[in-house]
Design goal:
- By secondary structure, the protein is an all-alpha fold.
- The chain has one domain.
- The chain contains 22 helices and two strands.
- Strands 1-2 form a two-stranded antiparallel sheet.
- A hairpin with a 5-residue loop joins β1 and β2.
Length: 455
């Protein structure tokens, strides 16, 4: 870790003075909040009969649902994504002005590669584990529970890739219509919720994966354009969104919890609702009101180095933190259920959280040491050549399908002899190969090189 810290310090010292460090800090903070939230909410325990129960804190302690207003910070990640994508896309447009070709394809393929490369190890590991656990006779329901819990984080990447793919369109809409482009998306989300809740139209609420998350992403463009330049303006947005959120949840039909709660009729996150959109706008106003103080705070080299360090392994922490959780739980179960006899939400359970968190961190650190390098293990897509448009489209479609199904139905199969839905595991790998990167593409490339050298 000392080596990683020293490298992060070097990078921190090299950062240009005009870099908005608050963007990087918010990205790191949001992932840390997600990790802590997941480690709190997932609360398995052993009941009186000796069976392991997958406890969910929000269902056991209804008051804890209010905590999701602070721990559900995926809106901040989309806000930061809008800011960052706006910066990188504008730089890419300047290349087009210089006569470069394949501007969008190269830009998008590069963004996909940076997001998906860290996914390959965790997806492959859990595919092998699901196969092994099934062949060893482990009950398939338990295999599914373990794999689905560990791989929950991948749903976000499928949605984020789709939102990122739309950046050229949404950026152009921002340049032409400004905030009207955001409010049009808000109107669309309101319409979708009305059709879902009042008219009972099935499945249409899945459109809010785009309306809500693209809307928050659009606020990233607004941030960069100076809409929230004054603290007063940011606080106006915060107050208005807070009022709307209270109206929608306390007095309206939406639940207080901003993530799914077992047994609840409505979930604010899967798919997202206008309540989650209001939370995102509220969080946007709050963090941007704090920006001047935050940027001043980040002039500290130690804090800025810590931010750079976290950003350098951010996907590894996000993708592996629940694997660390599952590993600790399995070890506790193997050791006779030590610590799992405490019922979630009791005084003893809360007092034991620091110990469990220390164990989760201890389990996560080796994973960071081994897998964080995959966040930097990418080069030019297809050796620097432009990826054909059709291959980009097919590739990202396969990747998104694979990631979405991993979260939705699990890679564990209740019927297959292998115990694994091989097509779900394979889809992101094949999609990456279509786009010209990843392990499968590397094997194909080496195979072709071998044939050429043999001939």
């Amino acid at each position: 870790m000392l080596k990683m810290w020293n490298k992060a310090r070097e990078l921190a010292e090299m950062a240009p003075p005009d870099r908005n460090r608050w963007v990087d800090f918010l990205r790191a903070l949001s992932i840390m909040a997600v990790v802590i939230g997941h480690w709190l909410v997932a609360a398995p325990y052993i009941d009186a009969s000796g069976a392991v129960q997958g406890g969910h804190l929000l269902g056991i302690l209804p008051w804890s649902q209010w905590l999701t207003w602070g721990f559900q910070v995926m809106p901040i990640f989309f806000l930061v994504g809008g800011y960052s994508n706006g910066v990188s896309w504008e730089a890419q447009l300047r290349k087009a002005e210089d006569g470069a070709t394949g501007v969008y394809r190269d830009w998008f393929a590069s963004r996909v590669q940076r997001l998906i490369t860290p996914v390959f190890p965790v997806l492959l590991l859990w595919g092998v584990l699901a196969l092994a656990m099934t062949q060893l006779g482990m009950e398939r329901g338990q295999v599914r529970m373990a794999t689905q819990l560990a791989l929950v984080p991948v749903w976000f990447l499928a949605v984020y890739l789709l939102v990122t793919a739309l950046t050229p369109i949404t950026f152009r809409l921002w340049q032409r219509f400004g905030l009207a482009s955001f409010f049009a998306l808000v109107a669309g989300a309101v319409l979708i919720d009305w059709l879902t809740l009042s008219q009972g139209v099935p499945y249409i609420n899945f459109l809010n994966f785009l309306f809500v998350w693209v809307g928050i992403h659009q606020l990233g463009f607004a941030w960069r354009s100076g809409v929230f330049a004054t603290r007063a303006m940011a606080m106006v947005w915060f107050a208005a969104a807070l009022a709307a959120l209270i109206g929608l949840t306390v007095y309206g039909p939406y639940p207080v919890a901003m993530i799914g709660v077992p047994g609840a009729e409505i979930t604010n996150s899967m798919p997202p609702t206008i309540a989650l959109l209001a939370l995102g706008v509220m969080q946007t106003g709050l963090v941007l009101a704090l920006e001047p103080a935050g940027r001043k705070m980040l002039q500290s080299l130690k804090l800025w180095t810590a931010t750079v360090l976290m950003n350098g392994m951010i996907m590894t922490v996000y993708l592996w933190h629940l694997t660390a959780f599952v590993l600790v739980m399995v070890l506790a179960w193997v050791m006779g259920g030590i610590g799992l006899d405490l019922y979630p939400g009791t005084q003893g359970w809360w007092l034991s959280r620091p110990i469990w968190f220390a164990l989760y961190i201890a389990a996560l650190l080796p994973m960071i040491a081994i897998f964080a390098r995959h966040e930097r293990a990418f080069g030019p897509v297809r050796g620097g050549r432009t990826v054909p448009k059709l291959r980009v489209m097919l590739g990202v479609l396969l990747i998104c399908i694979g990631l979405a199904m991993t979260a939705a139905i699990s890679i564990a199969s209740p019927e297959a002899i292998t115990g694994v839905r091989l097509w779900v595991v394979a889809a992101p790998f094949i999609g990456a190969a279509f786009m010209g990167f990843g392990p499968v593409y590397g094997l194909i490339k080496r195979g072709r090189a071998g044939k050429q050298s043999a001939s």
